[in-house]
């Protein structure tokens, strides 16, 4: 569990909570920020070690540095997992092997970040 929290960049704030892994979670997760809730959800997802991981705007509340560390950790720890990122933030997609650009459900372009920019 701690490894999943570390990959999701959540280990630090969880270890600061009273009770650590047994800390109280208020209704709706009110005692966590939006970014913290996203990182906890990602930690939960990586625990499954599934062959596919789909992150649909899952890092939108994170700053770009934390997001970059998180995505790097996923790639390093799960090299055989196909990661599907859905994002409106171009910085999120810079490390992608392939980007599919969609508009109103129509495929407009396919390529690497540098090719599409």
TrEMBL record:
Annotated GO MF terms: ABC-type oligopeptide transporter activity; ATP binding; ATP hydrolysis activity
Record keyword ATP-binding present: yes
Residues annotated as domain ABC transporter: 20-60
Keywords, alphabetical: ATP-binding, Nucleotide-binding
The UniProt record lists the keyword Nuclease: no
PANTHER family referenced in this protein's UniProt entry, alphabetically: ATP-BINDING CASSETTE SUB-FAMILY B MEMBER 10, MITOCHONDRIAL (PTHR43394:SF1), ATP-DEPENDENT PERMEASE MDL1, MITOCHONDRIAL (PTHR43394)
Protein name: ATP-binding cassette domain-containing protein
Species of the source: Streptococcus pneumoniae
């Amino acid at each position: 569990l701690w490894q999943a929290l570390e990959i999701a960049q959540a280990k630090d704030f969880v270890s600061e909570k009273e009770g650590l892994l047994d800390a109280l979670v208020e209704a709706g997760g009110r005692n966590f920020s939006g970014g913290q809730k996203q990182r906890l959800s990602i930690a939960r997802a990586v625990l499954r070690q599934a062959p596919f991981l789909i992150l649909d705007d899952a890092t939108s509340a994170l700053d770009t540095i934390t997001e970059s560390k998180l995505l790097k950790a996923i790639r390093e720890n799960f090299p055989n997992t196909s990661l599907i990122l859905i994002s409106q933030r171009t910085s999120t997609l810079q490390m992608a092997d392939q980007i599919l650009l969609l508009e109103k459900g129509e495929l407009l372009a396919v390529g690497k970040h540098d090719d599409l920019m």
